[in-house]
Amino acid sequence: MAAAMSKSDALVLDPARSIGRRPVRRPMPKLWLLVLPASLFFLIFFILPVASLLGMSFNKTIPGVLGFSSALTLDNYVRIFTRSLYFDAIFRSVGIGVLVSLVCLLLGYPLAYVIARTKVPARVTVLTILVLSSMQLDMVIRLYGLMVLLGDNGLINQMLLASGLVSAPLHLMYNTFGVVVGLVQVTLPFMIMSLIGVIRQIPPSFEEAARSLGASRAAAFRHVALPLSMPGILSGSLLVFAMSISSYVVPALMGGWKVLVLPIHVYQQIAEAGRWQFGAAIAAVLFLTSLLAVIVYDRAAAYIAGGRS
Amino acid sequence: MTDRKDRMPFVANRRQILKASAGLGLAATGVSLFNINHAFSKDVSYDGQPFDAGGATITIAEWGGFWQETMRKHLLDKFEKDFNCKVQYDSSFPWFPKFVASGPKNPPYAVTNWNLPEMFKTAKAGDYFMPQDELIANVPNAKGLWPFAKQNSIGLTWAFSRYCYVYRTDTGLQPPASFQDFWDKRYAGKRGTYVTTNTLQMVFFLTACGAYGKDFYDYDAGYDAMKKAMPMKVSDFTGNMQALVERGEVEIAVQNDGEVYLQKTKGIPVDVYLWDNPRPALTQTKTVSRYLDPVQKKLALALVDRTMDPAFQTAVGEVFFYRPTARDAKLPKGLIDQGVKNDADALKDLWIPDWNRYLEDEDDIVETVNGIFAS
Amino acid sequence: MRDSNDAIAWPFYVGSALALIVLVVPVLIVILTGLNAGDYMTFPPQGLSLRWIKSFLTSPTFVPAYLFSFGLAAATMAIATVIGTMAAIWIQRRGGRLAKILRGLFILPLVLPGVVIGLALYVFLISTGLPLARTFYGLLVGHVIVTTPLVIATVTAALVDFDRSLEDAARSLGATAWQAFFRITLPLISGGIGAGALFAFIVSFGQFEVSLFLSTPDLQPLPIAIYTSLRYRFEPTAAAAGIFAIALVVTSTVISARLVNFRRLFGGR
Fold first, then answer.
1. Which domains does chain C have, with CATH numbers?
2. ipTM of the complex as predicted
3. Mutation site, C3, C36, C115, interface A, largest A CB count within 10 A
């Protein structure tokens, strides 16, 4: 048996030998065993805990009390949708998520393209290290690094003031701009990683062919590479969007509490005010917002796939 | 108020859930979390003498990083040796949700070090702490404390510093001369404070209520004052505010004075302005959880007793420029140079807000001030 | 071999440079801050020295936290890679509605705030009495939950590109389905699995939000130790700790680049 198997390695390289035999594509026996560990793990340690937390959102809010009671109410949701502090946060979160996805796409695509098309392995490794190393920068320390750069007395403002371009320092952090910069920093590597794989699967010969038929470089890119990158663009954007609207630490540190997004309210209500039920309701709204984004993504992906075939 | 016990099925139903999970074989790992015998935990007393705890472990909650290293060095390492025990140190703030998640009968920590609002909040949520008179009766060193140490009705305060403004001295601006100077136009756009749920901001807010309104709980006056102080840099914690002041992003901010004196010794051009009416204090207070097994409870009392020891408070004061609550503790030279004294006069007018009253309204205050900061 | 036609157009280089600036400049600032000779965090540094590096290496807080995070990330990587790869293969093979639903389910941890997942898990472990609360294993469970989606996504991407006819060939020669899978498929998607594993390691090592409530007394992961430390004092030691964290990523990336060619790692041809 072992001998037969080692032989099959060589056969792979010679597909001609399998011609004439009808491939038998029977399902692998007991295939479901593969998904069992992950499913059980998620059921016990993710679905059950999160469901019991979100379930509490239908109970009356009593500070410092934790648990599910059968007296249900929608009070917490009414509160979210009738107070602008919380209601506006939904749109602020979504807006920031969309903006960060767009910026990451614009910044990430060129770098992903260069990494995907670079032929020298050492260069690919160096670029990859540069992308990945920023993922390991602790958020609180990153805050310090960005303060040096973006603060009122930071390097950028010093340069702008010295050059006379501005007369007063620009506020580049402790506001929405700062949050977007922080989130782009954190999520950009994920966008780049999602794009590299997809771009690499587009044979360069496709673009060369388009150009040999007289298309300009830009046109070749727009009509060949870009459409073929769509799956990566969509999945990368979804990933970045999800990470952005669920981030607590970046808006907390970079927003200077001027950018109140949903996760900040969740944290304040639960961890600091002990209002578990209300915090759970905000978390549920955040969760549904993300789900909506996933559905939109799914539709877009299906539409693009349909358009191509 | 609703009966809290009825509303805590997570806690009340634990045994049923345990049975269910035991059925699943999940609890069969040989570790039991529920071997606590509450029946006799009330009868524990402590007389100040070291004893052999037989290698028992107690878990405490206190601040992390350099603070933790200092506590290890001046208190915990020796404590572990003297009492033959192990101290587990948890520094991942906040503590309040962890208490609530576990319930009073299964406290996450034996001894907890707090700022007052979070402590009051936890006490309000359930029967979590040993009553203060029982605590004092079993902490022999409590006899040597100033009355201020007990002025919180729940735990024992072992260190404090005064709330103040920190301001840059290199700006050429006139230093602040009153609490209200914070609002002066010379500091426009250069003011700093903290997020609504930070104790420093709570005290600053209540003091502003008092300065601009009819009393410390005149919230409308406080909201108005917060609006007028905008734009402010709002920080999450003191470490971040230090960096903002050190970098000159903020020229005046709320701070505790010990921290500023420390910054001064590092050569940072800053100084302290203390306001006198009222004189709020940032406190470090320790509580002992009510329901613990007897050995744990005795160890907890012993640890609090050691914290009230003048020698320990003197040593920590040297490091953090905090002031002691023990009569016989010595102030560090850095504080004496600033004119600080450890006598009855220095402590008699210290102000602690009515936190229970604040917490009743916290919900509205947090929402409103959040809205002001975000505008 | 290839003519200049194949060169990458200049706008891509400009965009790449911009992206690299955004990513790398804060890293450089932190590195320089960690090498600062001054008494507190200043930039530009007041001269260079190794004093904060030494302070990190002798720190009773940061070094154990660093090692703890390393162990945690390694364990997380091992579990997430195995269960994530298995699930990805099932999703790919099974297809259909059920696979789609489960794929959506496995992505969910990415769309909820880490603090909510950590808190929910903490309350769950405490209230059910599972002996995992406030232990290494509780923390490990939380990390596996948030890293497995990344492994599933990466491996699924690698499988999309995989040519099933190779496996069919092996099976037509008498190999069982499982044999064909282990001998043919697994080696071919090893690049994708490697990328997923690297992702899981890095994300676990840098994880803050999920760890916040799950972290254990005494031993904390590095990001939590840095956070709880910086809350009270901004010290260059933390920046030095950052240097070592970055060094770890560089090392692990170089090692994986040696083990699997990066061009293959991204599913290239």
1. 59-265 (1.10.3720.10)
2. 0.86
3. C115
